[in-house]
Structures are given as C-alpha cells and as structure tokens.
Amino acid sequence: MPKHLCIDPHDPYAQHEVLVEFERDGSGLRLVAVIDGYDDDILGDLVEAQREDLRREIADADCPLADPIPMPPTHGTTSSLAPH
Asked: pTM to 2 decimals?
C-alpha cells in the first residue's frame, strides 16, 4: 500500500510529520493507518476534519498538475547534489 508523509494533525505548530498508509478506492483515498513519531497508529484518534486534511494533503502531493518541487540552489555551497 502507498505511504505518504503528512503534517501531524495533533501538532499545532506543524513541525512534526506522520506516516499515512492509504489506498485508492472508487470515491478517493481511504486512510488505513496514521503512524506518529512514537510508532503509534493515531487514525482512531482523529476527527473527520483531520482525516479530510490528510486526504487533501495526499491528493495535492499526488496531483499530476501540481508544480514540481524545485531543487535547492547549489551555487555557493561546498556540496552538490550532482553525482561526481
């Protein structure tokens, strides 16, 4: 099953992530598990609005029309992402 890192719905500062396991069904995305930083499945603790936020975040990241994430600039640094 596909997995995606999303913002932790329990983190008011949006600094932590959860690993969301999901599957696609006829009506969209079905959440299977939401694993937090303590390796606990918190899916059962989430209200429907939080679940919908996770579905939206996954759909936005998976959208083929979304802009690609730009690579960070490498000029002026000692390391490069390019293979040597």
From this structure: 0.71
